[in-house]
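re: the backbone from monday

yeah here it is again, tokenized this time
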């Protein structure tokens, strides 16, 4: 548990994290691009915001 998560638990506040990592190209022969090309950060952020919107 992170320090922020522990602090939120103590104060009975909601806490969430959105973790994002870029794909590894270690095996380019079996790489699945999933349409993440140059806009991947924006797509991941928008996906996370939609999840947050639906959660609340």
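seq for it, each position gets an aa:
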């Amino acid at each position: 548990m992170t320090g922020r998560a522990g602090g939120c638990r103590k104060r009975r506040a909601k806490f969430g994290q959105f973790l994002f990592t870029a794909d590894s190209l270690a095996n380019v022969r079996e790489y699945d691009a999933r349409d993440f090309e140059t806009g991947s950060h924006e797509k991941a952020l928008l996906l996370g915001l939609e999840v947050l919107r639906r959660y609340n």
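The chain has one domain: 1-19+36-56. DSSP finds two helices and no strands in the chain.
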